[in-house]
Amino acid sequence: MSAAASPAASSAVTAQHSLIGRVGSQVDQHVAAAVREGLVRRPKRLPAWLFYDAEGSRLFDEITKLPEYYLTRTERAIFAEHGAEIMARAAGGARLRIAELGAGSAEKTRVLLRAAVERQQRVVYEPIDVSASALDGACQLIECEVPGVTVAPRVMDYTHGDGEQFRLGSVSDGERHLVLYIGSSIGNFEPSEALRLLRRVRAGLQAGDSFLLGVDLVKNENALLDAYDDAAGVTAAFNRNILVRVNSELDANFNPFTFAHCAMWNRAESRIEMHLVSRVAQQVKIAALDLTVDFACGETIHTENSYKYGPGEAEALLEEAGFASDATWTDARQGFAVCLGRAA
Ligand code: AVJ
Question: Fewer Cβ neighbours under 10 Å: the N or C end of the chain?
Fold first, then answer.
């Protein structure tokens, strides 16, 4: 269809496409609403959770192995070195049940679970995720790979609402919960949202329970930028994959290569921002939304914030959320911090 087609003809085509889109495959209304809301506003944005379809999750896993992406390996090294001490402090003489916000497919969760098994022979591990599918598979693997672990997955939305949603199962006498929120996942939240999330978690815990938070630290700007703009282009592919996903799920016609991957350090907000910058003036049709989106040359879609914490900031956040800051572990280069908060 040519760009010069009449408005009437073009909207007829749009309507037909949207019909095919709805009949042929189901449109996820949560995705549809987020894309519409994000692309009609100025500046345009798309929420970072949209990255994680199957291909996006695969690309993220690839990112964690890149030489520039120090976060995962640094946190894993902290767990490997201090796992026993982390467990001892969290347990305080009791037995631990370990919950994790976000499905723990990651190898670094296993490092902590091994440290727990070492201490108490058996441990119940409760991965918590908004999506049941994220909890399948990967979590069950942990039972096989770390003998002594029993996996009890729970579907819960801990990112929204008044906190009523976040309730851990009650523990027996002599047991305490340790909730993990690791991997710098908190970095995607604005400071006010991060505080709300931690307060919600705190409200679901009992005195004596604890919370382990992994945060990325402010550091040399080039090291930060490299981690989000790697030489192999994996992060660029991860960023563009959000457009590929919109194409397939909402029957859109983005050409991902007309958008440049851009990572920048926003010093004032202490965050890395990822954007997709339109290289040309263009129009994109999103058939399932019956929406046409105009892009000026150089216009961006803001796809992610990744907040970096300064010294003492994560501890202050824990305290503000109602935890007593118990201990912090970092690597020798102060690249990443793991903070333990206790529900007093
Ligand atoms: C999964 C949110 C921790 O912010 O570093 C990696 C996501 N984005 N590269 C991060 C991400 C680009 C990651 N988190």
Answer: N
Q: What is the per-residue DSSP string for 212-273?
A: EEEEEBP--HHHHHHHTS-TT-HHHHHHHHHHHHHHHHHTB---GGGEEEEEEEETTTTEEE
- 261-300: pLDDT as tens digits: 999 999 999 999 999 999 999 999 999 999 999 999 999 9
pLDDT score recorded for residue 8? 37
Angle subtended at Cα 126 by Cα 124 and Cα 131, rounded to the nearest 5 degrees? 155
The DSSP annotation for 174-198 comes to TEEEEEEE-TTGGGGS-HHHHHHHH
Please tell me the residue having the least CA distance from ligand 1 atom 12. Answer: 228
Beta strands in 52-131 (DSSP E): 95-101, 123-129
Each residue's pLDDT tens digit, 98-117:
999 987 666 889 999 999 99
Q: Is 184 in the pocket of ligand 1 (CB under 6 A)?
A: yes
CA of 71 to the centre of ligand 1 (A): 9
